[in-house]
Design goal:
This protein is of the alpha/beta class. The protein contains seven helices and seven strands; from the N terminus they run βαβαβαβαβαβααβ. The structure holds NADPH dihydro-nicotinamide-adenine-dinucleotide phosphate and ligand LFPNKLMZ. It comes from Pararobbsia alpina.
Amino acid sequence: MLLHNKVVIVTGGSRGIGRAIAVACAREGADVALNYWGENDASYEKRSAVDEVLDEIKALGRRAIAVEGNVAEPATGPELVARTVEAFGRVDVLASNAGICPFHAFLDMPSAIFETTLAVNLGGAFYVTQAAANQMKQQGDGGAIVATSSISALVGGGMQTHYTPTKAGVHSLMQSCAIALGPYKIRCNSVMPGTIATDLNADDLSSAEKKAYFERRIPLGRLGRPDDVADVVVFLASDMARYVTGAALLVDGGLFVNLQ
Ligand SMILES: NC(=O)C1=CN([C@@H]2O[C@H](COP(=O)(O)OP(=O)(O)OC[C@H]3O[C@@H](n4cnc5c(N)ncnc54)[C@H](OP(=O)(O)O)[C@@H]3O)[C@@H](O)[C@H]2O)C=CC1
Ligand SMILES: C[C@H](O)[C@@H]1OC(=O)[C@H](O)[C@@H]1O
């Protein structure tokens, strides 16, 4: 098992990629603290979704807790870490994954959408990483942080002008943290998913034409699944990646390199 008896925190662990990360880590032997929010999202039943993930992890024989909190709030990171340490005694891995992508045109972008996206995606990654790193430093035996950046850190999107800079920022945050935290043996890396079918882009991909367009552009011929990303996060979190820090791994079925 790649994460036997490790303690993992996953932000945005209630669904999508974060849920898959939480379950994949448990399958590899970890206990998991998952964070979620969803305050303004009426599209799904928040608590029952969270309970399902907790049940799935417990069915794998591992312990799990859920901690509600908006990662954009600076206090959420320390609270999440404190609750994790209270439950499991330590933190070995952070998967900083929570994020939003409310598609919107640039020229009339409301400032509130821009600011919330920045606060959740980049501010959230910063504060939670800082809190987890302080705990890992105090433990004294290293750790691993894996952030969910995106292919969008490298390429643009006309309806994502508020979003793509946050994903470039997350990538850059992991690079700088790799330097800042290397002396404490804390590795910092990111994954860059391509187009993964989740609630985040369900509306955008509800057009059969757009979905088919993406499938044509992806050399491996299909949209990504959350577990495609989760398995790479497990690898980067594990000792298999013991000499990997400051790296970013595209998990996109080849989408990025497909010019023609
Ligand atoms: N889907 C894709 O194609 C890609 C996604 N990504 C990135 O992957 C990450 C996960 O996205 P994905 O799984 O697709 O999206 P989902 O919408 O399926 O899941 C998002 C998760 O983030 C949580 N979340 C949202 N806002 C907050 C907040 N303020 N505080 C705490 N948790 C929050 C949600 O919690 P709740 O359920 O409670 O709302 C949910 O668990 C994001 O960072 C996204 O940018 C990157 C590249 C491609
Ligand atoms: C929400 C998008 O469909 C998704 O998120 C990203 O980060 C990439 O831009 C994907 O296409």
